TrEMBL record:
Residues 49-108 bind DNA. It is found in: Nucleus. InterPro entries: HD (IPR001356), HD-Zip_IV (IPR042160), HD-Zip_IV_C (IPR057993), Homeobox_CS (IPR017970), Homeodomain-like_sf (IPR009057), START_lipid-bd_dom (IPR002913). Residues 18-28 have a biased composition (Basic and acidic residues). It comes from Salvia splendens. This is Homeobox-leucine zipper protein. Its main location: nucleus. GO terms for biological process: cell differentiation. GO terms for cellular component: nucleus. Belongs to the HD-ZIP homeobox family. Class IV subfamily. Residues 48-57 have a biased composition (Basic residues).
Length: 713
């Protein structure tokens, strides 16, 4: 018995060690131990051999992932062939596939558990509501209170459901009348209403919408209704607010004078506040005290059709990807309706977004709002946003901003493009904005419609080039790059720019921690975060520092100075004091300023010769970006040959340039931002010297730019 007990305890120790090792392997993903796996460990008296860990290269991970998608369970012959091709041991390949299968199984189980948990909460809530209704039973004859014994359980449930459906029918008939533009009578008892009742509270429209209308609002399946958290009364208020906001948006988008008049500066359109107050009733109440109002309207032609644009706007992830410099983060918190007839017509959802101007001097705007989509005619759509603070928290304190009916009206054109009229209307606390940016924000240039339209046009033009099979005539390269490599470089540059935008402002997309240091300038914001298990970033402690300054230089002149590789040595310490050579150039639009470049500096020593600089430049009517990051030569060779760019680690830095006023003769507002790896250990503590070094780097860069452009300090 003693020997059996010792053997049992020994096996438990080894098994526990194996579980921890396997857990570490599945967490790391790209690290593999050069030791025996848990399946090969045998109980013995020998002490366990120390494990060594090896990090796979991006090319190895790409090959392994490619085979895993085709065959998650490779046989011994396939593993042997793969190990020879990747210069790995067969057991390393075996362990990688074991860990990858375990990781995928864990993700699936976690997703299923989340869905089941939400369904369980929903059933529990329904059960509680039925129990509450049963405490007050009604008499069958008189409809008054009755004892539970006088009414059967089934009959009581039917009466409760009947009363609820009657109230729902009256309310939905009124809303449907508004929706269709004509009164809808309530149906009789044989209307088949029970066939149209859905869990989202709008299924009753199936019984009241006439046949000449497209289709009833769909009844959401349980898999899609798990995020629906609003009660029926709240959803009805949402629909009424959405209809009123849609009506206001369409009128504002289509009406000219006297509602919109030409301003004195730049000829931009200005909303006539007196005419607006006479024409519209406030959807969400009066403007809070101390708030400033901004309104703008812009029209443009975009290389996209109306259906694709509507789908992009109604999907929070696609919306954030389309506007990375404006939308820091977006989530859909509640789906009230998915639309009618398999389209987005009638889709209504509750969303949360963080909107940003690329400057640490302008706070991020957090807003909860309804987004409603409606098709007005063939090829004509409208998408409207409106804040819901007056519904959900009427007695709570107002947030720092409110979104009045804003959005766009989209109309298809014969050439496959669409005409977009964008309206932005909001109210915000002006005291939270730095004085330097107040004129620009108040003029609607920070969060206004011009910025949305310009960004949409530029992004759609880039997507059209990305989807095309031929390269633009302006593309040139000194290095070998395939068509697949061209697409991989554009995707890598897009990820670099998105990470740059996320690091300038204190959005919640990344868990940034603000720092306060004595030796840091007042207008410099310093933040830090830990990078762990992200293949697109080097692991360790990342420090982000950003500041904004005003320069008496036109935005165009400043942008062309910063993007010129021949003048880079005047401000960039990575250039080693000499001009840079452009190894590759990929055009992203008709404007020469929209491109992706691969730069190489003149090397002073052998260590610097292994470093390239990936740079993306973007420009439109609302502003410009110059974003760059050092990259390894071996990693870029993989990308230029069409390899997966997701495993290329980079930390972006760069500049954002915007005009300081609507006029053409004003100066520029320049934002300088750096992201630097200060320690390769995520658990390391940030030192004062690291913060001072980054602060000095920003100050030195700004001074060099001023000196080069002959600006006064």
């Amino acid at each position: 018995m003693g020997r059996m007990t010792e053997k049992y305890e020994s096996s438990n120790v080894v098994g526990g060690r194996r579980s921890r090792d396997e857990e570490h392997e599945s967490r790391s993903g790209s690290d593999n131990m050069d030791a025996a796996s848990g399946d090969d460990i045998e109980v013995s008296d020998r002490p366990p051999r120390k494990k060594r860990y090896h990090r796979h290269t991006p090319q190895q991970i790409q090959e392994l992932e490619s085979l895993f998608k085709e065959c998650p369970h490779p046989d011994e012959k396939q593993r042997l062939e793969l190990s020879k091709r990747l210069c790995l041991e067969t057991r390393q390949v075996k362990f990688w596939f074991q860990n990858r299968r375990t990781q995928m199984k864990t993700q699936l189980e976690r997703h299923e558990n989340s869905i089941l948990r939400q369904e369980n909460d929903k059933l529990r809530a329904e059960n509680m509501s039925i129990r509450d209704a049963m405490r007050n039973p009604m008499c069958t004859n008189c409809g008054g209170p009755a004892l539970i014994g006088d009414v059967s359980l089934e009959e009581q449930h039917l009466r409760i459901e009947n009363a609820r459906l009657k109230d729902e029918l009256d309310r939905v008939c009124a809303l449907a009348g508004k929706f269709l533009g004509r009164p809808i009578p309530a149906m009789g008892p044989n209307s088949g209403l029970e066939l149209g009742v859905g869990i989202n509270g709008f299924g009753a429209l199936a019984a009241v919408v006439p046949n000449d209308y497209a289709a009833p609002l769909p009844i959401m399946s349980p898999s899609k209704s798990t995020i629906n958290n609003s009660n029926p009364m709240e959803r009805s208020m949402y629909l009424e607010l959405a209809l009123a906001a849609m009506d206001e948006l369409v009128k504002i988008a289509q009406t000219n004078e006297p509602l919109w008049v030409r301003g004195m500066e730049g000829g931009r359109q200005v909303l006539n506040r007196e005419e607006y107050s006479r024409s519209f009733t406030p959807c969400i109440g009066m403007k809070p005290k101390g708030f400033a109002a901004e309104a703008s309207r812009e029209t443009g032609v975009v290389i996209i059709n109306s259906l694709a644009l509507v789908e992009t706007l109604m999907d929070s992830s696609k919306w954030a990807e389309m506007f990375p410099s404006i939308v820091a983060r977006a989530t859909t918190t509640d789906v009230i309706s998915n639309g009618m007839g398999g389209t987005r017509n009638g889709a209504l959802q509750l969303m949360h977004a963080e909107l940003q101007v690329l400057s640490p001097l302008v706070p991020v705007r957090e807003v909860n709002f309804l987004r409603f989509c409606k098709q007005h005619a063939e090829g004509v759509w409208a998408v409207v946003d409106v804040s819901i603070v007056a519904i959900r928290e009427p007695s709570a304190a107002y947030p720092s901003c409110r979104r009045l009916p804003s959005g766009c009206v989209v109309q298809d054109m014969p050439n496959g493009c669409c005409k977009v009229t964008w309206v932005e209307h909001g109210e915000y606390d002006e005291n939270e904005v730095h004085e330097v940016y107040r004129p620009m924000i108040n003029a609607g240039m920070g969060f206004g419609s011009q910025r949305w339209i310009a960004t949409l046009q530029r992004q759609c033009e880039c997507l059209a080039i990305l989807m095309s099979s031929s390269s633009p005539s302006r593309d040139h390269t000194a290095a070998a790059i395939t068509a697949g490599g061209r697409r991989s470089m554009l995707k890598l540059a897009q990820r670099m720019t998105n990470n740059f935008c996320a690091g300038v402002c204190a959005s919640t997309l990344h868990k940034w921690n603000k720092l306060r240091a004595e030796n840091v300038d007042e207008d410099v914001r310093v933040m830090t975060r830990k990078s762990v298990d992200d293949p697109g970033e080097p692991p360790g402690v990342v420090l982000s520092a950003a500041t904004s300054v005003w320069l008496p230089v036109s935005p165009q002149k400043l942008f062309h100075f910063l993007r010129n590789e021949h003048l880079r040595s005047e401000w960039d310490i990575l250039s080693n004091g000499g001009p840079m050579q452009e190894m590759a150039h990929i055009a992203k639009g008709q404007d020469h300023g929209n491109c992706v470049s691969l730069l190489r500096a003149s090397a002073i020593n052998s260590n610097q010769s292994n470093m390239l600089i990936l740079q993306e430049t973007c420009t439109d009517a609302s502003g410009s970006l110059v974003v760059y990051a050092p990259v390894d030569i071996p990693a870029m060779h993989v990308v230029m040959n069409g390899g997966d760019s997701a495993y290329v680690a980079l930390l972006p830095s760069g500049f954002a340039v915007v005009p300081d006023s609507p006029g053409t003769d004003g100066g520029s507002l320049l934002t300088v931002a750096f992201q630097i790896l200060v320690n390769s250990l995520p658990t390391a503590k940030l030192t004062v010297e690291s913060v001072e070094t980054v602060n000095n780097l920003i100050s030195c860069t700004v001074q060099k730019i001023k000196a080069a452009l002959q600006c006064e300090s």
